TrEMBL record:
Domain of life of the source: Eukaryota
Biased composition (Low complexity): 267-295
Native organism: Ajellomyces capsulatus
Chain intervals with Polar residues compositional bias: 247-260
Protein name: Uncharacterized protein
UniProt-annotated stretches for the region Disordered: 166-187, 247-313
Record lineage: Eukaryota, Fungi, Dikarya, Ascomycota, Pezizomycotina
Acidic residues bias locations: 174-187
């Protein structure tokens, strides 16, 4: 089996199903279409044929600049497409392209005349600018944690006056919180004592032999021993201040009924004089606590002053 001819392979790639008006062989394709296109390109590129290079342009069909010059013609474009589809090498293309204006014709002229024809195709064309290398951007993703936050430099605190203002505001807020906490503690202690006295007073009213708070019992006992009980009742009913000094009264005893009455009156007078100012919530709660304590104290006094009816019950 013979090896297929290279020209026939190229012709079959260009004309898979040739028509009657198309070239029948590769040689007829060269004569009818390829050589006329080469002449047009030579006259367009060089102008007049008064130089050796214009007479022998030496077009190389494997050289990219020459293929670019001839690629704008229809039949040369089909020829280059067939070369690429068949995967022809440079040697195979050089052995196939042997007609007017090709590199084969120039090489023969240079060999016969012993001259060197200079190719000016790439003159006045600068080298292409090399492409920029690929750039790599590395993004550092750092976990947002309290350790990564940088604290301000306290040595240079004078440069930032707003830091001083913020510190003063924080100190004021802390002082206000401490004051409010102290008031809550005092209020909670009074509420607990008041509830204990109310429970004991209600139990005594129901007839149960329940003693009041030990501090209150001691206070009432010493008041009766010093004959200050009657004067204390008159002072409470008339609203006068109490001038009773007892030696064995505990330092942290709950407030007496006289103090309660005096506090109620002073609270009423201050509320009447300062009716335009709003009353804080802590004062309202302390006032209600004081009134409840006075009610419990009066009930305890009445029950202790009338022991006979309780015994009769």
């Amino acid at each position: 089996m013979h090896k297929p001819v290279l020209s026939q392979l190229v012709y079959n790639a260009i004309f898979p199903r040739p028509r009657t008006n198309e070239p029948s062989t590769f040689a007829s394709l060269i004569t009818r279409h390829l050589v006329p296109e080469v002449r047009i390109e030579t006259s367009t590129f060089y102008g007049t044929l008064d130089c050796i290079e214009a007479q022998y342009p030496g077009l190389d069909y494997s050289f990219p600049p020459h293929r670019m010059r001839l690629g704008r013609f229809a039949w040369h474009q089909k020829l280059f497409k067939a070369f690429d589809e068949l995967g022809l090498t440079e040697a195979e293309i050089a052995s196939l392209c042997r007609w007017e204006g090709t590199k084969w014709a120039r090489d023969r002229y240079e060999r016969d005349k012993a001259v060197q024809v200079r190719d000016t195709t790439t003159d006045n064309i600068r080298c292409a600018t090399p492409p920029l290398p690929p750039s790599v951007y590395i993004h550092k993703y750092v976990e947002d944690s309290p350790r990564n936050h940088q604290l301000p430099d306290l040595k240079n605190e004078d440069r930032f006056p707003e830091l001083e203002i913020i510190s003063e505001l924080h100190s004021r807020e802390e002082d206000e919180e401490e004051t409010s906490d102290d008031g809550d503690e005092m209020e909670s202690y009074g509420v607990t004592l008041n509830q204990r006295l109310l429970q004991a007073a209600e139990a005594r009213q129901q007839g149960a032999d329940v003693s009041l708070d030990e501090d209150w019992e001691q206070w009432l006992k010493e008041a009766s021993e010093h004959n200050a009980y009657t004067g204390m009742l008159h002072a409470i009913r008339s609203g006068r201040p109490l001038n009773v000094s007892l030696t064995n009264v505990p330092l942290h005893s709950p407030p007496s009924s006289s103090d309660t009455a005096a506090d109620v009156r002073s609270h009423g007078a201050s509320s009447a004089s300062n009716s335009s100012r709003p009353v804080p919530m802590s004062n309202r709660r302390s006032g209600s606590t004081t009134i409840r304590s006075s009610i419990a104290a009066r009930s305890a006094v009445d029950s202790s002053s009338n022991p006979a009816p309780e015994a009769a019950r």
